[in-house]
Amino acid sequence: MRGGYALSAEERPEWRGGVIVDPEAKLEEELIVRPTSETIIWNTYRDWIKSYRDLPLLINQWANVVRWEMRTRLFLRTTEFLWQEGHTAHATAAEAVAETRQMLDIYAQFAEEYMALPVVRGIKTPNERFAGAVDTYSIEALMQDGKALQAGTSHFLGQNFAKAFEVKFSDKSNQLEYVWATSWGVSTRLIGGLVMAHGDDDGLVLPPRIAPLQVVIVPIYKGSERKEQLDAKGKELAGQLKAAGIRVKFDDNDNNRPGFKFAEYEMKGVPVRIAMGLRDLDNNSAEVARRDTKEKVTRSMDGLSTHIKDLLEEIQQSMYRKAEAYRDSHITRADDLAEFERLLDEKGGFILAHWDGTTETEEAIKEKTKATIRCIPLEPELEEGKCIFTGRPSRQRVLFARAY
After folding, report:
1. pTM for this one?
2. CA 36 to chain centroid
């Protein structure tokens, strides 16, 4: 449509290499709007891949993509967002599956070891898998309000895109074969997940390993009384922390009072705050405050940089344990629909329940409860049971939740 009327055949944009081109566009630089890059990548791979010697082939990129979201949520669902995406081509199915699983594990490792965010690894149902994929794997996280968040996906595409774009290679027997493919990605949704998994009413709570600023040092004095001594001591400590590999800032800005600085850095989620006043200077000590627990202790300046380094690692592990304990306490089993609905309304979180394996039942449960199958866990406990909705036989439980 343009101006409220339908375009004629002559006016319609044309397709070039998987991209819609508007012949009337008069931009100095081309603007390409796309949901994902598969069409662009595979149109290009067709020219790049000729022989088994060209494989495996991997492209990794950061790019902005567009999704037509009816209701946007900051970071979680926006019309345009930045994401990291990878696209690979392989000579065999086994290599492609191994790549898919490897990337799932890399995403899970990043979420757990750096974001302090425990996740469940699993495979999506046919109804939830990426269009064009043979299998979609995902990592699923739980937010503090009991809703789930898909934190990353990795897709085994089989030969579907290769066949659609005629991407073939000559194997070692000089036979033409279609390549095997994967794609995978995470986005700025992880920032939303980080905020909701760890934040509190005072602002962000950042895990030390990914915090841009790990430690802030705030001097406390009135007027210019012994200011030079405090500044010298603060800068000395900052230098020691930097030498230990810690990202630190000595905030000697006179425009803001210490209380304002405390609130600001608390809101920004800086893991550790060190406050130094005149009494601390006389006692060769400093006040050390943790952002995650709000705990404050007075420590000697002797060996303080070593203590701070150990404290940052303790905060990292403590944040993970807290999130894991919350997640584990909100994984509940349900054996019938009434219990399933009660848990969703009263407790939230993940629910392990039997499902008969059909798309019809999956859609019916979603329609009735607003809960979706987040994934089929990769290491399930095989267990004979009955579907909570139809009563049909089931061999394992799947993970349900209401989600963002």
Report:
1. 0.89
2. 17
